[in-house]
Every structure is written in C-alpha cells, then in structure tokens.
C-alpha cells in the first residue's frame, strides 16, 4: 500500500480550515484527516512517507477547467504529446486536474485536435486530464476576442455529433453563444451527453440568456470578457450572470481581465460556490524566451497579458492557478474562499464528485504551499509529484 502522511499544516478541507492538522493518504485516496496531537500519538510503519510541511497550507489540488497551453505546449498543436507536456508542467504549479481547452478551428483541423487531445487521457504523468473543453465553434462572430473569425460556424448538430464521436465521449464542457439559431437543439444534445454548457463569446440579450438557462446553459466563460455588457435597459449577458444566482462564472484573476475592485461586487452578488477560478493560460505561459506563439499568432507579453503582435488585441492570460489564488486573497477573499474557487468550486460545477475536497474517500489530490504562495509539494492521485521538503 502506498501511504503518505502530511502533517504540521493548516488543512483547507474545502469547507473548513483546520490548523495544526495532518492528512493521511493511502493509495490514491484520502484516508484520514486528524489533529497534530493525534499524529504524534500514532505509529506509522516504514512504508509510510512522513512529510512535515512546516506550518504550510495543505489544500485540495487545483482544477483548471479553462486552459489552452503552458510552458510551450498548447492545444493548438493538435498533438497528444503537447497535452501530456502540459500535464507534466502544470502539476509542478499545484494543478492536479485540468480540462485542455481547444480553440475553434476549420472543421477537419478541429476534429484532429479533439481526437489527439482525447487520446492523451489516461497516459498523463502529471496533472490528470479530466476531459476536453471546447471554446466554440458555435459562438458569436461579434464577440470573438482573439479567436479566429474563419473558425466560427453556425450551430451544426451533425458536426457536434462528429466531435463527440472522435472524442470518445470525453468532452466535458463547451463554450457557446446562447443566442444562436439552433442552440436549444444543441443544448438538449449536450444535456443528454453530460456536457456542461457555458455562455461565452456571446452577444446575447438578457432574454437569450434566460432562454439558455432554461435549456441548461448554467455556467459562463471568463465573466465580463467577450460577452455583451450590462446596460440599464437590457442587462445582456453580464447582467444575467450577476442577477441569477443559479449561473456560475469563470474568472481570470490576473488583475487585468477584471478590475480588482470588481471582486467586491462578485463577493456581494454571487454565491461563493458559483465562482470558478481559471487561468485561460496560453501556450507561452511560463515558457521563458521567445519568440512566443499562441493559436498560430505571434504574441508579446505586456502588462501581465499576452497580446497579438499584429494588432495588439489581448490574446489571453499568463496566469497560474497559485498566482490566481494569491491575487484573490489580495482582492479581499479569505484564503479559504480563494482556494475554494480553484478546487472545490470547479469540481462541483464540472461534477467531479471525487475531487475538490480533503475528505476521506476523495481522490488524493493535494497541493501544499507556503504562506508566500510557493508551491512546496503536490500529490496527484496519491503519487508525490513535487516535494521541496526533502
């Protein structure tokens, strides 16, 4: 039996902070959570790896449900090896599970990208690949952001069925524009397949959003960004997300995609369990030296984000999950609540019922970080992937 005991830390279980505590892992599951006093009374055999975390924070592993790339590996490579490269690097930054997020593309290329990404599932050495996030192609040409106009298409149920087939049923979530013709039929198809639909890259009016909610579109993609803005005569997409507590929302907490003071509004108006931290990180995130490319375009890093070199349009984020948690604490979240947005909340929204909490029987996905937010140790499905306490 593989056995690991982390002790002398503050455990953020997912619903309560417990100081001076320990976590016992057996094989790939959480076996027990107990006080430091009880730890000192226990006797462990030589097969148990004991790690003194020196008063660091022990939290559920981070789950990034919207990420395009990392460290020079990207979903646009249409390569299983690139997805596996993301897995190896992300786990070193506290991410124990992720949804590789695919850009919309010309149909044949998108089919290939979905097939390749799905083929990486089960072969990962680092963070677990939970399934695929498709950011399009059924989105609004009026709210592209950095996505390519030629890759966007009208709702096409036959093409959706093809993508589902080549993914071997591994599409977990999908960004769509609720206002598109034929969206209800697509939503019902996705509902039957268990795909989480999220409103994004949308020019929806308020009534379109409400209709979408009634068809099961209850999550949203990078709130405030690439969606119709709130107006006093029509709340539009942003307003609908803020008005309806049933709607959950992604946030990119890099201080640029959303003004830091907006988090005061979110804390007041959105239930905490409906706020999901994502990175939306691009292929060159943490890559180092350039040239840097994302989705086939050369990008430059400026003021904390990547911009397309050709037109200066924001291409995406360079955020990491641990940095996002740190930023949220700086914006007024408690540390416990910040961690929940990165672990418990995405697990709940994506229905990863065995993840996101430090409770006996849950998957042994853990991140240990210092009070200055340095990732010190990571355990993914019961295997130590990083340990700086040695």
What is this structure, in a nutshell?
The protein has 390 residues and is of the alpha/beta class. Helices cover 26% and strands 29% of the residues. It folds into 2 domains: 3-59 and 356-387, Urease, subunit C, domain 1; 62-349, Metal-dependent hydrolases (TIM Barrel).
Query: How much strand?
Result: 25-35%
**C-alpha Rg (nearest Å):** 20 Å
The CATH architecture category of the largest domain equals Alpha-Beta Barrel
CATH class of the largest domain: Alpha Beta
* Count of helical stretches: 11
CATH superfamily of the largest domain: Metal-dependent hydrolases
- The count of DSSP E runs of length 2 or more, i.e. the number of strands, is 23
Structural class: alpha/beta
Cα distance spanning the termini = 21 Å
Share of residues in helices: 25-40%
Which residues form runs of ≥5 with pLDDT under 50?
none
Question: Mean pLDDT, rounded to whole units?
Answer: 96
Instruction: Give the assembly state of these chains.
Output: single chain
Shape: globular
Largest sheet: 8 strands, mixed
CATH topology of the largest domain: TIM Barrel
Number of domains: 2
